Amino acid sequence: MKIAKNILFISIGLACLPLYAKTITQDNGAPVGDNQNSITAGDTGSVLLQDVHLIQKLQRFARERIPERVVHARGTGAHGEFISDGNFNDLTMAEPFGAKNKITPVFVRFSSVVHSKGSPETLRDPRGFATKFYTKKGNWDLVGNSLPVFFIRDAMKFPDMVHSLKPSPITNLQDPNRFFDFFSLQPSSTHMLTQLYTNKGTPESYRTMDGFGVHAYKWINKKGEVKYVKFQWKSQQGVKNLRPKEVIEMQSKDFNHMTKDLYTQIKAGKYPKWDLYVKILSPSELNNLGYNGLDATKQWLNVPEQKVGTMILNRVPDNFFLDTEQSAFAPSNLIPGIEPSEDRLLQGRLFAYADTQLYRLGVNLFQLPINRPLAEVNNYNQEGASNNTMIKSDVNYEPSRKIKLIEDKSSKAVETIISGTVQQKKIGKERDFYQAGIFYRSLTKEDKNDLITNLGGDLNQVRNKDIKTKMVSYFYQADKEYGTRLAKQVNVSLKEVIKSIKQ
Ligand code: HEM
């Protein structure tokens, strides 16, 4: 772009700084003569269609928004790096864990789940914790949440669950009558709801949350040996949440508190850090758990964990839209050494993110700077809207006698023996309530009180007595004290609760 030679002077206090004024142009680069007045037919006539600058300005303005994410629309991002604690080659070929002190650039996007793009950050929600590792072997996205488990265990139920949690199609209001209608018929949600209605559902800041991969993944080493792993980010700032009263205070004070906190702290050079831990199980250890180890509603309890590295966030984006809004995290963005486990929820996610991003950002989303891999991209995918790649060869097919891209045999899918029947059945060892009970009993007295207040508050908005009774029956089956306290809080008879369990 041409820079006009005029130098303006603006004064800040006593200092006088030169500012090079650039000529305003249209999108084709042509200079604009008047950015204040439309071209009209004289003093009294209408605006002329030939005012292409006006038309372009209005057209571009009308197209500024891209679709917001169908979930996790409200979020904020930051750049940083991941530093490996050691060489974990005996466990995985994954590049970020290949050598001690190895540095991998990252971009993290934190988010809330249900509420829309401009919604208050004070609202109760799990928080997204998505990390993109830019490795030399491709981008790896660890797309996790601030809570260790999930509401459902089969991707088939995700659209239904989100519909119930999103505003009503009739009133456009979020309504506990709708989502508890759904959850009262989905006992797998008992553990996650218990986690969510503690104060962990209203974190003080993004810096003071832990993050969880939730699903099991597979780590694969060069010999093709497989281990199942679960990831956890532990905040070095400690975990801090807002108590019910503090949420109300914050709502009236500043409902952008989480974004502001992250930007303010990073800009002040107070860089937040998280340690990455993994829990590791061999396939036979996984099978021997007393619950299904590939069930996203379960934590791996009493499995030792190992620290594998630390992440530091040290730069906020120069432009929110370019980096944060256009970032595309997908569980399908995997690298050699990391494969998905057979977890049914994860398997659905492998499709859903890449698919929604083709719609949200377009087919050439990997060319956007924030999503572009460090690794060179060489394949025969081509063209599509807004393509910026220059293909200089006419060989856009394979095999060919002329040029050949070479396959990296070490990156082949790990061989896995399977047997069984094609089927549509629930998983075994569902055990919907037992980990919710363990979690409830691990809470402090104050946290238990807040849980009853928070959960009771939303359940009390439910008009249908059967829904309330069923919900309480789930929490009662997790822990008798928990259910009994909740029954009192929401005015449900314990007799009815026990009757509902027997039925
Ligand atoms: C089958 C279950 C699920 C489906 C179908 C699903 C689908 C989606 C979709 C369509 C998006 C929007 C992506 C985009 O527009 O870029 C999204 C975002 C997200 N999901 Fe899920 N989701 C599921 C479960 C989960 C689970 C279990 C977690 C946590 C472990 C999770 C964490 C996230 C996060 C963190 C984001 C936001 C990523 C970002 O910051 O851009 N989701 N999900």
Task: Quickly list its features.
single chain, 503 residues, alpha+beta, Catalase HpII,  Chain A, domain 1, 3 domains, ten-stranded antiparallel beta sheet, two-stranded antiparallel sheet, 14 helices, 28% helix, disordered N terminus, binds protoporphyrin IX containing FE
In short:
With about 500 residues, this protein is of the alpha+beta class. The chain contains 14 helices and twelve strands. It folds into three domains: about 1-35 and about 55-65, no CATH class; about 75-150 and about 205-365, Catalase HpII,  Chain A, domain 1 (Beta Barrel), CATH 2.40.180; about 435-500, no CATH class.
Order of helices and strands: EEHEEEEHHHEEEHHEHEHEHHHHHH
CATH top level class name of the largest domain: Mainly Beta
Number of spatially distinct domains: 3
Mean pLDDT: 95
- Helix content, binned percent: 25-40%
Tally of strands: 12
Radius of gyration: 27 Å
> CA-to-CA gap between the ends?
74 Å
* CATH domain topology of the largest domain: Catalase HpII,  Chain A, domain 1
CATH architecture of the largest domain: Beta Barrel
- Secondary-structure-based class equals alpha+beta
Shape: globular
Low-confidence stretches: 1-16
How much strand?
15-25%
The CATH H-level homologous superfamily of the largest domain: Catalase core domain
Q: Which quaternary structure do these chains form?
A: single chain
Count of alpha and pi helical runs: 14
